[in-house]
Design a protein that fits this description.
alpha+beta; two-stranded antiparallel sheet; eight-stranded mixed β-sheet; 524 residues
Length: 524
């Protein structure tokens, strides 16, 4: 049932006994995906179950914002620190039988990330941070389903000469996603080749959360687009200041101090290490970091990678060790092919991370993302999503042109990151993506439907499909992760019927006029 896509599903009751999870509880699976924003992509609705296009309407345009696909680790950080911890335990004969299996799995994870993308078409520089084969396939499949969902739209492209505009953040993962998506389109529709424009890059549009400290260069004359970019820069600086603020840091510290996380860590580590070692770890007797140099070569010998850690990722207690292991567990789901090549398997990491412990860490990371990237606190206003107005304006600009009958563009395809998808969903006021909390009543899964696995999994996407009839009326539907999604409740009057997912575009545009007026006000 799509209307309840982001509604809260109560978590199973967890039984904690003397700081340990009951063995029976550990065998149970969590109610929802416990890999939060690292969850590999899957469409949330089948095409066959989508509401039919209203009679008399034909597709005229589509536009997309998509996060990059499944990736590996972004850098050699806590994975190496955890490996050093394991090596120390091995030297002290402090490993359990399952713990002895952890070392080879960590080596495989390191190797897979060192060589990530080596020999894979479309990956220019192998190594940490790249998309996996799963990630590239996620975007190819996304393109294929778009073609299947809107066959009439792309059939007319060649004769009409309409452009397919492709733009990315300019970062490797987003660029590679754009290329994978476009390549898949052209395999099925080679006639589109001359219509593809790009990929170009635009950080203001698709990487606005990390704009540099230097403002954009001014242009002569009154340029509304330049004014919008300047306002986006200001909003980005405000967001980056918030990311360093005591208000946010206090919330993150509160989340990390939840005693249930330490209880989960005790369960995770007791499976792997002997009590004496864990006692010394808990007393602060050890300090492990991502220092040192490692080298890995591909099986065919064509690629070798040598990296030296910066020593900044540190493990000094059991909670940090268990959280580092959770991060490897979470990322492993999108690295099946790479781990297999490195001699490991995603199921190994599932053995090291009991389901309910994984759920605890997923809930904590969801909470952290909620405050740092998501709707956040009422007291902080719209600081976490205000910078997305330039992107929403771009969506409206493209749709406005279609509504006016200016159909130079057949599609606009944008490729970015979770930090871009999340603010846009909040700015749109989408169900489950925009509910703020107060400092006195913090985020909790039981009272807030925000879930990283639903809001921004790998390859998360928002699509606006537009249709027109012979009389020139234009309607739009929103697909969020390929499921029909309602616009904000204030726009219900724009629906074609009370239960329809199709909206009259002029009425929808008027409904979001407050956003557009706010943009115009900030430009003056």
């Amino acid at each position: 049932m799509i209307g309840g896509l982001f509604s809260h599903q109560p978590a199973r009751a967890c039984v904690w006994l003397s700081g340990l999870l009951l063995a029976a509880s550990l065998a149970q699976a969590a109610d929802r995906d416990d890999r939060q924003t690292k969850t590999p992509y899957a469409p949330r609705q089948t095409m066959a179950s989508l509401e039919p296009v209203p009679p008399g309407y034909e597709p005229v345009f589509t536009q997309l914002l998509a996060r990059h696909g499944s990736r590996g680790l972004t850098g050699m950080k806590s994975d190496l620190a955890l490996y050093h911890l394991w090596q120390q335990a091995e030297q002290e004969d402090a490993l359990t039988p399952l713990g002895r299996e952890l070392g080879p799995a960590l080596q495989a994870m390191l190797r897979a990330n060192f060589l990530l993308g080596a020999g894979v078409p479309g990956i220019s520089q192998p190594g940490y941070g790249n998309e996996t084969r799963t990630g590239l396939q996620e975007h190819a499949d996304l393109a294929h389903r778009m073609l299947q969902r809107l066959p009439g739209l792309f059939d007319q492209a060649g004769s009409a000469g309409r452009a397919v505009v492709v733009v990315s953040s300019g970062k490797d993962r987003a660029v590679d996603s754009a290329e994978a998506f476009t390549r898949a389109l052209l395999v099925v529709r080679p006639g589109l080749r001359d219509q593809v424009q790009g990929p170009s890059s635009d950080a203001y549009l698709l990487y606005f959360h990390r704009l540099p400290k230097t403002p954009p260069a001014e242009t002569s004359g009154a340029d509304p687009q330049q004014a919008l970019r300047l306002q986006t820069w200001r909003d980005s600086q405000a967001y980056q200041a918030y990311a360093r603020s005591t208000a946010l840091q206090a919330q993150l510290a509160r989340i990390r101090q939840d005693p249930r996380l330490q209880e989960a860590a005790d369960v995770v580590l007791a499976q792997l290490f002997k009590p004496d070692f864990l006692s010394r770890l808990g007393q602060g007797s050890y300090r492990f970091s991502n220092s040192g140099t490692l080298t890995f070569s591909s099986a065919d010998g064509r690629y070798t990678s040598t990296l030296t850690g910066d020593g900044r990722s540190v493990i000094v207690n059991g909670l940090q060790a268990a959280w580092a292991l959770y991060d490897l567990y979470a990322i492993s789901a999108g690295m099946r092919s790479e781990l297999a090549q490195a001699g490991s398997d995603v199921k190994e990491f599932e053995r090291f991370m009991p389901p309910l412990a994984a759920q605890r860490y997923a809930e904590a990371e969801d909470a952290e993302d909620f405050y740092s990237k998501g709707p956040g606190m009422v007291e902080q206003g719209d600081v976490t999503w205000r910078m997305a107005r330039i992107l929403l304006q771009d969506f409206f600009d493209e749709a406005d042109a279609i509504e006016r009958g200016q159909r130079r563009h057949l599609a606009k395809l944008r490729f970015a990151h979770a930090e871009i998808v999340i603010p846009l969903a909040a700015l749109l006021g989408l169900p489950g993506a925009s509910q703020q909390v107060t400092e006195r009543e913090p985020y909790a899964p039981a009272s807030n439907g925000w879930r990283g696995a639903l809001i921004a999994p790998m390859a998360a996407n928002l699509q606006w499909d537009m249709f027109a009839n012979a009389a020139g009326r234009t309607v739009v539907r929103l697909l969020y992760n390929e499921a029909e999604m309602d616009f904000k409740p204030d726009c219900d009057a724009a629906r074609l019927s009370p239960d329809s997912h199709y909206y009259d575009y002029r009425a929808l545009r008027a409904c979001y006029g407050s956003v557009r007026k706010a943009e115009e006000h900030n430009q003056n």
